């Protein structure tokens, strides 16, 4: 092989290596972009499942599977932005159009948190952040069903968007209500909206509230053990039927009780 031939060979080999490096670098960028997109998708899916249930998640999953499949077959992710936007619109349209599937005693399904950006922020005196309880917790109504979750919803009486500061647990009138956590009866009161209410103080600014009770059984100041009967389910105040409106509050800020019960810490 002549000197000129070797030079040409080295030049061509160098160009080929540079091209391979550029291809590898481009592949890494695509992979990193895809990973970032997947992280955002996972977070969005978690929010959707928490707020709207598995049906909304299934719609998300179906919409995005097609996008991900195309990305892995060689298409640049940025070229799929239109598809991504369409999938997002389709998903949010599904959420906005979701009918109120569970009606009656506990209220109705939440309104879409995405229809108006203000719904992404909790009102004053509430929080969307998780709550943690480092003690045993009992679901307050044995055999009761949660029919209205914490958060934005359509109010079952006014029909307007509303932020629900607790959970509504449906049960027959007269069903026993148990203390979710041990504590002291701080207050027994009546209000036009919540009817008969009993509030337990658990210390460190933490309280549980039990509303719409038919009858309060525990006296003010009483020391209550976890699981002890404190009241009976009723429909006092503004309700559409017998149920318990149950709240958990820390320093007067209402948080979602299902963060606790979803962890299997009930019963």
Automatic annotation (TrEMBL):
Pfam families: Peptidase_M23. Residues 163-257 form the M23ase beta-sheet core domain. GO terms for molecular function: metalloendopeptidase activity. Keywords: Membrane, Transmembrane, Transmembrane helix. The chain crosses the membrane at residues 28-49. InterPro entries: Cell_wall_metabolism_enzyme (IPR050570), Dup_hybrid_motif (IPR011055), M23ase_b-sheet_dom (IPR016047). The keyword Transmembrane applies. This is Peptidase family M23. The lineage of its organism: Bacteria, Bacillati, Bacillota, Clostridia, Eubacteriales.
């Amino acid at each position: 092989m002549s000197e000129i031939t070797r030079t040409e060979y080295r030049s061509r080999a160098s160009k080929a290596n540079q091209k391979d490096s550029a291809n590898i670098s481009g592949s890494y960028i695509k992979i990193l972009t895809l990973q970032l997109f997947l992280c955002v998708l996972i977070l969005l899916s978690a929010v959707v499942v928490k707020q709207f249930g598995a049906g909304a998640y299934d719609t998300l999953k179906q919409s995005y599977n097609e996008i991900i499949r195309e990305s892995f077959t060689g298409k640049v992710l940025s070229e799929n932005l239109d598809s991504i936007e369409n999938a997002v619109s389709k998903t949010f349209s599904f959420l906005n159009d979701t009918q109120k599937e569970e009606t009656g005693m506990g209220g109705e399904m939440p309104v879409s948190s995405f229809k108006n950006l203000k719904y992404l922020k909790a009102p004053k005196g509430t929080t969307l952040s998780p709550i943690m309880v480092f003690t045993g917790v009992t679901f307050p109504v044995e055999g009761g069903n949660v029919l209205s979750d914490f958060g934005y919803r359509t109010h079952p009486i006014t029909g307007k968007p509303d932020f629900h500061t607790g959970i509504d647990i449906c049960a027959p009138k007269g069903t026993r209500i148990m203390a979710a956590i041990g504590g002291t009866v701080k207050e027994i009161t009546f209000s036009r909206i919540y009817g008969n209410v009993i509030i337990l103080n658990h210390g460190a600014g933490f309280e549980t509230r039990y509303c719409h009770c038919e009858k309060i059984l525990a006296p003010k100041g009483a020391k209550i053990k976890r699981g002890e009967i404190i009241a009976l389910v009723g429909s006092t105040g503004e309700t559409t039927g017998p149920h318990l409106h149950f709240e958990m509050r820390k320093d007067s800020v209402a948080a979602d009780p299902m963060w606790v019960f979803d962890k299997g810490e009930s019963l």
